[in-house]
Amino acid sequence: MDFLTNSNVLFYIIAYLVGSIPFGLILAKLFANVNVKESGSGSIGATNVLRVVKQTNPKLAKKLGIATVLLDALKGTVVLIVAIMFNAPTETLWAIAVLSVLGHCYSVYLSLEGGKGVATGLGVFIVLIPIPTLIGAIVWGFCAKVLKVSSLSSLLGLTAVILSAILFNNGLEVGSNAPMYIIAFIIYYKHIPNIIRLIKGEEKKVI
């Protein structure tokens, strides 16, 4: 019972369960009556929500896409902020961050399937390493505008976050870059199909 009443453990469980909430799937089903897991790329992320809903309702698609990004980001941000309010140590905060991204990518509510983790990763990084994350967001925005390829823009933005964090004296305050690398690895791993399509020149643009 002590295990279940330990504040750190409770935060870990909450982080994973909240991270697992498939907001993209819920919003698309609720407001557009479509199942994004059965359409487009099958992802629950904002890009697929935008692409699928756009086929029937372009105006609604943009709203749902933005809402999906914000809610997926907040999944990690809110739990971290609450943990900070309870004076959780930095090591605990990074564990919460990792579990939030894991929850999104391998949702307990979707038989361990999920999204690519970009928005949730952004949500946890902006709390823990804000300056590198802002740099990554600028890189992502520029690449998205110029390249119009969501996956490539996201991966370049993530890479900018990692490199910036290393450049700015790590910024992790836990004596190791490992938690940041784990989050990055999860996101890169989930993008392997996109990377393969990019290499083949088959990745679709977001118009």
Automatic annotation (TrEMBL):
SMART domains: G3P_acyltransf (SM01207). Keywords: Acyltransferase, Cell membrane, Lipid biosynthesis, Lipid metabolism, Membrane, Phospholipid biosynthesis, Phospholipid metabolism, Transferase, Transmembrane, Transmembrane helix. It is an enzyme of class 2 (transferase). GO terms for cellular component: plasma membrane. It holds the Pfam family G3P_acyltransf. It catalyses: an acyl phosphate + sn-glycerol 3-phosphate = a 1-acyl-sn-glycero-3-phosphate + phosphate. It is found in: Cell membrane. Pathway: Lipid metabolism; phospholipid metabolism. Its EC number is 2.3.1.275. It comes from the Bacteria. HAMAP family: PlsY. Belongs to the PlsY family. This is Glycerol-3-phosphate acyltransferase. It comes from Malaciobacter molluscorum LMG 25693. The gene is plsY.
